[in-house]
Design the sequence.
């Protein structure tokens, strides 16, 4: 009786075998799926290196617009927008307060949002120890407005704190947070 060489629930081979044929035919080659292309400027024959097929994607890195090839035409379908905007802004503090206004379209490429804004800051070159607050950012149209209020520790002041006054650079990091309109965070 031959010795068992290979045992598998699907296949049993007894004794030496001269040849085993396994079919690996999985069908004909189909058309490729969507490809992603990246370039500068709107998609065209010069920015896309091969003939596009339906559902191909193209990202214009000059403005973050996303295009999809639909019905033999490149159609703009979206825009990648940053979620954080960083800037160093030169401002004048008067009586401990400086006002800021930023256009959310310039920052994030959007004209409206249901999200709240998170603002972090650092005042560069201010004297000594600072105590600062930021007023609640308010969106009016596309303008995001808020104030930074600052006092610095001053041993010569009656209550040891004086309003910051003068010109300073303020590093700001502005992010879009979650929608808190229902009061739950």
Sequence:
């Amino acid at each position: 009786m031959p010795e068992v060489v290979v045992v598998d629930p699907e296949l049993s081979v007894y004794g030496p075998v001269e040849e085993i044929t396994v079919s690996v035919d999985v069908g004909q080659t189909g058309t490729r799926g969507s490809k992603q292309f990246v370039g500068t400027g709107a998609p065209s024959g010069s920015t896309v290196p091969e003939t596009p097929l339906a559902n191909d994607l193209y990202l214009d890195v000059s403005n973050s617009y996303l295009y999809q090839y639909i019905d033999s035409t490149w159609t703009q379908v979206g825009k990648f927008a940053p979620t954080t905007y960083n800037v160093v802004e030169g401002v004048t503090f008067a009586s401990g307060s400086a006002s800021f206004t930023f256009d959310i379209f310039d920052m994030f490429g959007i004209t409206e949002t249901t999200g709240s804004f998170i603002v972090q800051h650092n005042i560069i070159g201010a004297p000594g120890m600072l105590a600062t607050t930021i007023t609640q950012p308010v969106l009016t149209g596309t303008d995001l407005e808020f104030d930074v209020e600052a006092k610095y520790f001053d041993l010569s002041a009656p209550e040891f704190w004086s309003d910051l006054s003068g010109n300073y650079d303020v590093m700001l990091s502005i992010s879009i947070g979650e929608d808190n309109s229902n009061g739950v965070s």
